[in-house]
């Protein structure tokens, strides 16, 4: 067996250290799961931090015990994410973990270092559709920025759920929304969530933003530009 030093000598390359997601599970939590207290508590913290109480009115106790309340909370988010509502999360359910972690705390914030954002066509419209602040740390967890466009928002009136500079979903199908967002380079789990906003408007759109907005979080500057230009 070659050591890392021998591998580097033969190939000129070294192994990059594997980085594990800090919220990754190493066993299973939920119905018929291993339910190690530390793992259960990790899931409970993710669910609570993702806005479960604000969305459902139910408070999840963070105690490391996998009771019916924890299982129902897992199922609620599985349905939200178009997953089978099995009530069980395992180490391979990275989609679930990624979505809830994104809502709990944005781990990074891409910064635009090139000045004002530019698009090939429609610059005036692009500029009028929102702002691109980079000072707030966590949208949805502070006072509202009504013109910030890189998160799900509802402009009001008869508008639908909107993302970026004017991508209104009120007259778009589920398939169209998903395909367009993926073409713009937006992550799959975000595109799946946003696709559920098809044809929503008025108070239904506002409620969607309240529940799903924290899960989607922000899109990047580049993704916003691509979405506008499609």
- Can you tell me the number of structural domains? 2
Sequence of secondary-structure elements: HEHHHEHHEEHHHH
Largest sheet: 2 strands, antiparallel
Q: Give the averaged pLDDT, no decimals.
A: 79
Number of helices: 10
What is the assembly state of the chains in this entry? Answer: single chain
Q: What class do helices, strands and sheet pairing give?
A: mainly alpha
The overall strand count is 4
Separation of termini?
Answer: 51 Å
Could you tell me the strand content as a percent range? under 5%
Q: What's the helical proportion of residues? A: 40-55%
Widest beta sheet: strand line-up: 1-2
State the shape.
elongated
Radius of gyration computed on alpha carbons: 20 Å
Low-confidence stretches: 13-20, 106-117, 124-137
Question: How would you sum up this structure, described in words?
Answer:
The chain has helices at residues 4-11, 37-49, 52-56, 68-80, 94-104, 123-128, 174-183, 188-195, 202-216, 221-229; strands at residues 29-30, 88-89, 162-163, 167-168. The protein folds into two domains: 29-104, Muramoyl-pentapeptide Carboxypeptidase, domain 1, CATH 1.10.101; 123-229, no CATH class. The strands form two sheets. A two-stranded antiparallel sheet has the order 1-2. A hairpin with a 3-residue loop joins strand 3 (162-163) and strand 4. With 230 residues, the protein is mainly α. Helix 2 (37-49) crosses helix 4 and helix 5 (94-104) packs across helix 9. It has ten helices and four strands.
């Amino acid at each position: 067996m070659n050591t890392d030093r021998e591998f580097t000598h033969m190939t000129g390359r070294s192994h990059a250290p594997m980085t594990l997601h800090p919220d990754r599970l190493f066993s299973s939590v939920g119905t018929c799961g291993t339910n190690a207290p530390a793992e259960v508590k990790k899931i409970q913290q993710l669910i609570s931090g993702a806005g479960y109480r604000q969305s459902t009115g139910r408070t999840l106790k963070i105690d490391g015990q996998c009771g019916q309340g924890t299982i129902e909370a897992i199922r609620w988010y599985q349905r939200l994410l178009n997953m089978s509502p099995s009530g069980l999360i395992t180490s391979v359910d990275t989609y679930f973990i990624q979505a809830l972690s994104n809502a709990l705390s944005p781990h990074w914030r891409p910064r635009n270092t090139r000045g004002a954002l530019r698009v090939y066509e429609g610059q005036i419209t692009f500029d009028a559709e929102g702002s691109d602040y980079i000072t707030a740390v966590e949208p949805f967890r502070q006072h509202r920025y009504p013109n910030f466009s890189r998160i799900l928002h509802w402009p009001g009136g008869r508008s639908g759920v909107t993302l970026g500079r004017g991508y209104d979903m009120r007259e778009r199908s589920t398939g169209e929304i998903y395909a367009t967002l993926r073409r713009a380079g937006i992550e799959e789990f975000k595109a799946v969530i946003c696709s559920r906003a098809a044809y929503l408007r008025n108070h239904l759109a506002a409620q969607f933003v309240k529940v799903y907005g924290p899960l989607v979080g922000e899109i990047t500057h580049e993704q916003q530009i691509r979405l506008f230009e499609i």
